[in-house]
Write a structure and sequence with these properties.
6-stranded mixed β-sheet, binds zinc ion, mainly beta
Length: about 60
Amino acid sequence: MSRPGQWLQPRHGSKEAFDKDYPTIDTGGLTVACPGCKETVTLTRKSVQGKVGGWCKKCNRGVGI
Ligand SMILES: [Zn+2]
């Protein structure tokens, strides 16, 4: 079971905005449980500050740790 994730703050209005803030692909592939729908989200991207994040398609919202 994946550990619980957290919503990314500030909230990204769209997947495009998230992709812009998290421009690097991180193939490490940590997985967390979405805080909204509890489905597994793979954290495939990294921000310039080195934060990892993923996008929950169901909730249409960014998820991190
Ligand atoms: Zn979700």
